[in-house]
Each structure stands twice: as structure tokens, then as C-alpha cells.
Amino acid sequence: MSASEIYKFYNDQNVFITGGSGFVGKVLIEKLLRSTNVRTIYVLIRPKKECDAQKRFHNIFDNILFEKLKSEQPEFRNRVVPIHGDCTTTNLGISEKDNERLKSEVNIVFHVAAAIFFNQHISTAYAINCKGTENVLSLCKEMSVLKVFIHVSTAYSNCNRPYVDEIIYDTPSKYTQVENLLNRLTLKEARKLTPKLLESWPNTYTFTKALAENLVRDKSGNFRVGIFRPGGVTSTYKEPLENWSDSNSGPNFVIRCASLGYIQIFSATHSRIELVPADLTIAALIATAWDVYCNQDKDKLPIYNYVTSNDNSLTICELFSVVCLQLRNYPSNKAVWVPNFRTVEGSPMVYFFIFCYHMILGLILDFLRLLCFQKPKIFMVMLKTQLIIKDLYYFSVREWNFSNKNVKDMWGQMNEVDKHLFNFDMGSVQWIYYLRNYFKGLRVYLMKETLEAVPEAKTRMKRY
Ligand SMILES: NC(=O)c1ccc[n+]([C@@H]2O[C@H](COP(=O)([O-])OP(=O)(O)OC[C@H]3O[C@@H](n4cnc5c(N)ncnc54)[C@H](OP(=O)(O)O)[C@@H]3O)[C@@H](O)[C@H]2O)c1
């Protein structure tokens, strides 16, 4: 490891991570523990209705994602510490003791936490994505040994532009104006005004992520800052295990619903899709903190567009055509209908027919359920699914051009040992190899259905 510059950078460092209980955060924690010698990782974690923060923290490590780490480093739990709190609260709502500890010890911060649902209420999206970022930055300003702060954004924060450079684009309304307005409005009024507020952004997620980037630029302190913008993060390619994901967003949502029979037709084009496997994404994110601290000017705020199409493009139709072949090979035991998933060329009119088709199918299937004395539920699920699909439509019929010069330059700065330890070269991904087992991974890790149950599901499928 002595030849790894990135390993040296992380050696004996204390890291603070927000969003550690989420999909991206878990992969980040695992890789940092397995491939670097960080001293401690502090993980911000909030309680949820059904579970207190301590239990939620322990649950993170029950995930199969951590099995390899457990076998290689059984004592790894000594290096992770929960920090109970919530981004949206002043001072993150953390205890005085934790506050002091973070202020005096933390060297590297990854701000990963976010509200990622596309059409979350604008006030919630703002509170988490913007106010949350501001609160984390305020704490960072008080950290006496902080070296670098990395803000995780998204490649789609500027999806209202056809070309996205590695720069911060000013938003037409400043985040302060948006905040002042939201403070004055009731939730109902804010919802009504949302389409106007969003201007050319398609949803509250991308809009508030764009505002947050502006906020990071304006409010960071006397430490180095970088913004990392990945495309759609998908299942792992190889590390620590193949095809792992527990995310139910983007293409995973479509594929899961298709396997259950809730989506039969999807409107897609031959547009490029910016998918980036989670393990490569995290390798790039870890390298970003090193690059910002070791290779960039102190007064610069480098942006890293981590995308696919410049090096190894994949289209939406290619993705779904490979994956849909697997749906019948590994049918789900919970499917309500045969997964006859197919894609058609998209236009608003085609989308309208697809919507109607699903609604009629939902009514027919519910009628059949009633005849079998079962509770009708399929129509409602299909309706909700189609409403989410409507939100994805914007992304399934467009493509973007990205500059990824900073990512390329960072790769160029890395030595061979680091390139091996922290491989994020999208050119090395063999899409066919990856996609062949994509659904198998979702079935096991996201849908929690074992492969042993496949024969039973196939028999069940024959009855339809
Ligand atoms: N997934 C993608 O395809 C993708 C693509 C591009 C960029 N990104 C970016 O990557 C980051 C992580 O995304 P993800 O897919 O991992 O999302 P995720 O699975 O929904 O995780 C979100 C994380 O943020 C935490 N969080 C949300 N609100 C919080 C609050 N008020 N206080 C403390 N923690 C809070 C969540 O904690 P709880 O468990 O308590 O809810 C969770 O740990 C986001 O910044 C997102 O914009 C993701």
C-alpha cells in the first residue's frame, strides 16, 4: 500500500459522512474501511418512526455488502462511530459532546445526504438538499483540522442545459430568494407555486441540487472544497460483490416494477443513459477528496462530472433490452402478471396510450382478483407506478453532453497502484457482462427474493 498516494492521503484520517445509511453512503463507508486506513468514520444518522438512530446505525452493517469486509477485518466496527442527528436541524441536532469531537478531529467530510425523490414537496427538498448542506458547511467551518469537504451533487443538477461543463451555473433565482419565499408561504401555497419556481428544471430534486451547488460555492470556509456529480448510480460492477444494489430509484424502479408485472411497456428512446456502477462511482469519489486536496489550487472549487457516455456509452434501449430478457429467467414470486416487459419509441402521445393500457390492464386484473375473492389492489399500484414513470419520462427521452475533463485529469494524476485500488475508468466496464446479471442482483439484494425460489416462481408463472 505504501505506493498508493490515495491510501497515504487517507492514512489515520478521521472522516465524517452524511447519508451513510443510503445506497451511495453505504458503498462509500465499505470501500473506505476496506481499502484505506482511515482512523475513524463518523456517520450522521437520524432516527425514524420505527427505529431509533442507534439501531439504524447497526442495521447498516447487517447488509450483505459488508460480508467481505467482515471476513477480511472482523474488527472493522471499532472504526465507525454513529453521530445521532439530522441535517435539517441547526447544528445538525447533534449532542454537545459529538459536536466537540467532530470539530476537533475531522479531517475529511463527504456530504452525501439528500432527498432524492424527484417530486418531493419543494419545502422538504429545500430543507434537506439546501438547508442541510448549509448546516453541514457551518459545522465544517468550525472544524479545526478539516482538510477537504466534498459535496455529492448529481450530473443532472443542470439538466435544463443540453451541455454541462464542470462549472457551477448560477440559478435564475438565488437560493436566498427561494428560502425567503418558502418561509413566507404555507405548504399548500408553496406546492401551487412550485412549477413557477422550478423554471426550466423538471423537478424539485434537480432544482434544489442546483441551488445547493450555488450555496456550496458561496458559503464554504477556509478549507478545500470539491463537488462530485455522478450520473445515475447503479448496482456494483465487481466490488465488494457483483450487481449489489438496494436502491429503488431510476432504472431499478422500472426494472423492479416490470418484473412484478406492473410495467408492461416503457416509453424509451435510443438516447444515451449516464449510468455509473456504484463501486466505480465510490472509487472516483474517494479519489476526488485526494485530488482536491493534493492536486488542485486552494482557491479553486473543482467540479467532477462522473458520467458514462464520453468513454463507454450505453443507450436506454440497450439497457432495457438486455435486462428484460432476464425477467422471465428469474421471475418474481410476487409478480401479479407475466413480465412481458418491452420498450417502445417515446413521444407524449405514445406515453398517453401506455398510461391508458396500464390502467385498463389494472382494472381487468383487479376484476379477476375479485372473482377469486381477493382484495383488488393492482389498479392503484399501476396508477402510482405510472405517475412515477411520468416523472422519469423527461430523462428517458433526452440526452446530455458533459465535459469530464477534471475526472480525466484526476485519472491521469493517479499512479498504477491507485488505478488498480480505486478503479473508476468507465472505459473498463463491459456493459454486456454487467447487464447480464443486473436483474439477478436486483432480485436478490433489492427485492430480497432468493434464487432458490426461482423454480417455484416459474411454475406459478405458467398458471397465468
Ligand atoms: N442514486 C443515484 O443514482 C444518484 C445519482 C447521482 C447523485 N446521487 C447523489 O448521491 C447522494 C446519495 O444518494 P442515494 O442514492 O444514496 O440516496 P438514498 O439512498 O436515498 O440516501 C439518502 C441518504 O441521505 C440521508 N438523509 C436524508 N435526509 C436526511 C436528513 N434530514 N438528515 C440526515 N440524513 C438524511 C438518508 O438518511 P435516512 O436513511 O435517514 O433516510 C440517506 O442516508 C445524494 O446526494 C444524491 O443526490 C445519487
Automatic annotation (TrEMBL):
GO CC aspect terms: membrane; peroxisome
Domain annotation Fatty acyl-CoA reductase C-terminal: ranges: 357-449
Keywords, alphabetical: Lipid biosynthesis, Lipid metabolism, Membrane, NADP, Oxidoreductase, Transmembrane, Transmembrane helix
Membrane topology note: Multi-pass membrane protein
Signal sequence, start to end: none
Entry's EC annotation: 1.2.1.84
Transmembrane spans: 349-372
Domain Thioester reductase (TE): 17-284
GO terms, molecular function: alcohol-forming long-chain fatty acyl-CoA reductase activity; alcohol-forming very long-chain fatty acyl-CoA reductase activity
GO biological process: long-chain fatty-acyl-CoA metabolic process
Superkingdom as given in the UniProt entry: Eukaryota
Subcellular compartments: Membrane
InterPro entries in the cross-refs: FAR, FAR_C, FAR_NAD-bd, NAD(P)-bd_dom_sf
The reaction(s) this protein catalyses: a long-chain fatty acyl-CoA + 2 NADPH + 2 H(+) = a long-chain primary fatty alcohol + 2 NADP(+) + CoA
Pfam families: NAD_binding_4, Sterile
Enzyme class of the recorded protein, top EC level: oxidoreductase
Cross-referenced SUPFAM superfamilies: NAD(P)-binding Rossmann-fold domains
PANTHER family assigned: FATTY ACYL-COA REDUCTASE-RELATED, MALE STERILITY PROTEIN 2-RELATED
Function: Catalyzes the reduction of fatty acyl-CoA to fatty alcohols.
Sequence similarity: Belongs to the fatty acyl-CoA reductase family.
Name of protein: Fatty acyl-CoA reductase
